[in-house]
Design a protein that fits this description.
Rossmann fold, 316 residues, 7-stranded parallel β-sheet, 7 strands, alpha/beta, binds nicotinamide-adenine-dinucleotide, globular
Length: 316
Amino acid sequence: NQKVVLITGCSSGIGLALAARIAKDEKKRFMVYATMRNVGKAELLVEAAGRTLGRTLEIKQLDVCSEESIKACVDSLPERRVDILISNAGMGLIGPIECQTIDEMKTVMDTNFFGLVRLLKEILPDMKKRKRGHIVVISSVMGIQGILFNDVYAASKFAVEGFCESLAVQALRFSLNISLIEPGPVITEFERKVYEEGLKTDLSKADKVTADMFTNIYLKNYNQIFETLGQTAEDVAEHTHKIITMDNPPFRHQTNTLYTPMTTLKYADPNGDLPIETFYKMVFEHDKVFNASLNFLKLLRWRSRKSFTLEKDKST
Ligand code: NAD
């Protein structure tokens, strides 16, 4: 009666933490197929999995950019059954768009967006037939709100969110669940890789103001944002474990309450100017940060009152 969980991108970060956490479920409710593009990189997962390896966790090859690889992996599962799909594999890209090639941008879209589409083309028809299944997508707060110099990455996550929002209506007809997990900054390889690539950006194609904004404002504050707001991969895994054990899992779930006031700005202003102006002030008008922070606190209080009301509504 174990549920079969297939997770992508398990050689590091959130995917690795997720695979280990779910395989170690106290009630042994899950059989985890932890997949990765290159199984030669399984060392850390093997270590984290410990005694669950070969019991509630198995490692398999899967490249989300290859339809053949996805099909081969799903075909290798008993009855091709996947009860819970966790689409986690992804990559980032930062910098001014004039310094990035279209090919680099396409790789991000191909991995983050079409990676999910390929998985669902292979797995969704079976889920529909069985009228059972939960699709969990590791999106990001950048799936609902753009961030300076993350233009293409945010676009890839917006694509994921639009795709899932459209599909969710159809899924309901087949009693399937879809959940978007939206972490804020998470301290993983991702963050380090993105930062190091960012440092290597050839800024010769950018004007002076843009290059300066990227180097002296964005990159300079990058690590600090992760230090003050950052969560661990294990934290995100804990949230996701909770979501897959719920009877009625939510469509959206943010894992970082510290970040929530930022995304709330978007819904607080139908004109859409509030988040853009707030980010602008945070980045360029340091003396106004105090006022911006004050607005955050007000919103935070408003938000907690609202979520309290929602909790109360649920219980009645
Ligand atoms: P990570 O770099 O440690 O993990 C990403 C994993 O995806 C890696 O193991 C990588 O090998 C794998 N991957 C990349 N391309 C692949 C492909 N074609 N096929 C299979 N696997 C592939 O970073 P992470 O932070 O654990 O990222 C996991 C997910 O979380 C991503 O979707 C990312 O967008 C999302 N996310 C990360 C953060 C953050 O701050 N780190 C925040 C919000 C959301």
